[in-house]
Amino acid sequence: MGKRKRMKDRYRRFSYLSDIEGMKNAIGEMKGKFFPKQPLLNQEAQPADMDKTPDEEWFIKTITDKILHHPEKGLEYPFYDEPIFDAPLVGFIRGDDPIFDQYKKIIGPHHFTPFEIMRWQAENNGVEPPAPEDLSVVSFVMPISRHTKKDNAASTDWPSERWAQTRLLGEIFSQTIVREIVTDLMGQKILSIAPDVTPMFNKQRYPKVGWASPWSHRHIAYAAGLGTFGMQDFLITEKGCAHRLGSFVVNLKLAPNRQRPDDIHAYCLHYQGKKCLKCAARCPVDAITAENAHDKEACYQKVAKSLTYCNKNYHLFIYGCGLCATGVPCESVIPKGLRKNNFTF
Ligand code: SF4
Ligand code: SF4
Known about the structure:
The chain is α+β, with helices and mostly antiparallel strands. 34% of the residues lie in helices and 12% in strands. α3 (56-69) packs across α7 (161-187) and α6 (146-154) runs antiparallel to α7. The mean pLDDT is 91. Bound molecules: iron/sulfur cluster (2 copies). The site of one iron/sulfur cluster has 14 residues, from α9.
């Protein structure tokens, strides 16, 4: 994002041609291209080089510090340097959690297990892949800032400017901080990988689930007990559903710190038999209905059109929407009446 900072005092011109970072981000998301090279495992590192093996506390502190204090934590012109995110939620999943095999059936065989993606990283570094039980997944929720949520809640057709910036810069930022953490761990001889910045990451239309990627941060966050799904398919967490998510795999045994609700819709008012459907009322193309929940194809068509809008109005090469995640009861919290004390052990 260093290059983006030069835009701080003006809009970029002809963003269809000039927002190179935005275009690279979009192609990366769809085709798994243009990501920086994976860091190499430092096979010379000795235990003495390490201050302390990273534990759950280290990951929570490191991710929180980066999100709150990293030099690239801010939006760009005309909101220069406003923080993109509030303090995160961080959770852990064991690499041999049976939910990853269930995802092969529910999402599809294309969805990686932690072992599959780590095997790729191990082979790249000429080492034996660690056993699934020696792996963990670190998952984090980055709640979108109050100003951005307020702006998007006031929008009715297209994403607000702060939201569009968050969609692009938040994604670049998330990849930056995860890359820093993975590089740090690999330097300490701890095999690690962020699956969403590898050449295998690409989005495709699948027969069972529509548009999907081989590593779903949302499903990973559910597995970590960080939230459950709403009518609009966003993950409702204790800090709401207006967020961005990240996750990565490490060759460490980390203890899960949250209990995963069995009901995948435990925090959605409508699914729990209470009056709501505020997300459906917010959708400009009626992609959410009581009968069919979330029509991913109708949503996709609307979101794809926003690329033109964001280019023209915000000078960004990005698409987005999120209207159904803002101005709704689950925007920033678990709705009243559904909050249970099933978070930290
Ligand atoms: S707005 Fe209401 S119905 Fe829609 S996801 Fe949130 S809680 Fe569920
Ligand atoms: S994100 Fe999709 S479902 Fe939600 S408001 Fe936009 S178009 Fe509708």
